[in-house]
Amino acid sequence: xxxxxxxxxxxxxxxxxxxxxxxxxxxxxxxxxxxxxxxxxxxxxxxxxxxxxxxxxxxxxxxxxxxxxxxxxxxxxxxxxxxxxxxxxxxxxxxxxxxxxxxxxxxxxxxxxxxxxxxxxxxxxxxxxxxxxxxxxxxxxxxxxxxxxxxxxxxxxxxxxxxxxxxxxxxxxxxxxxxxxxxxxxxxxxxxxxxxxxxxxxxxxxxxxxxxxxxxxxxxxxxxxxxxxxxxxxxxxxxxxxxxxxxxxxxxxxxxxxxxxxxxxxxxxxxxxxxxx
Length: 277
What we know:
By secondary structure, this protein is mainly alpha-helical. Among the domains are: 50-137, Orthogonal Bundle (Cytochrome Bc1 Complex, Chain D, domain 2), CATH 1.10.760.10; 146-238, Orthogonal Bundle (Cytochrome Bc1 Complex, Chain D, domain 2). It has helices at 2-12, 15-36, 50-63, 65-68, 92-101, 124-137, 146-149, 156-169, 171-174, 197-206, 221-236, 250-276; strands at residues 181-182, 188-189. A two-stranded antiparallel ribbon has the order 1-2. The longest helix has 27 residues, at 250-276. The protein is elongated, with a radius of gyration of 28 Å.
């Protein structure tokens, strides 16, 4: 009887049984995560035709493959350390629409970060085609819908909430009024004045340059719309405090106070000197 129990115990503790249990557990966890995890907006290629994807691939190969690789998996690093474009697998259509639609890509020259330019090299149709091709390679953030960008029905309460969310998550880089600011290593947070709501939304979901990604778990789509509504109103809202001085905060205010104060002291000194003589 003792020998039988020992044999059964030995079979239960067989190393292969542990491996099988771990594998089953991993499969179970992965399946549950895929089924239950909240999903951000993902670029769907269902709406994009095969012709659009093929046209986008041709545009990509002609204009982007030098840096990003023929399969969009990233370019090879040259001996001088330059020429390596990041992989675009999984960046989604939103990233392409933002980078190319703001003129940041194709990159004109190597720099600390890609600047926004006014001259866009591609039409919106061509940008959509490249975005469709990149989206066909792997799921990623989609271009925001018209509903997500509709700020006409956003209430004043929602706009105030958007301002609060912006100042909590964005003001440390973009300034409390969205006027931009300097970062480290020659980088900067751009001025958001006049930036389209679509590009603001895409920046939040893709995290370009040094910007973090704000997915729907961090900032909901409704809150993103509220932020865009506040930024739109901030462009036209009068400053209740008088002169905004560029909305640069203590820098411009301190400079004005310093120059004005010194000028006042010099004027008083000259007046007193003339009076005493």
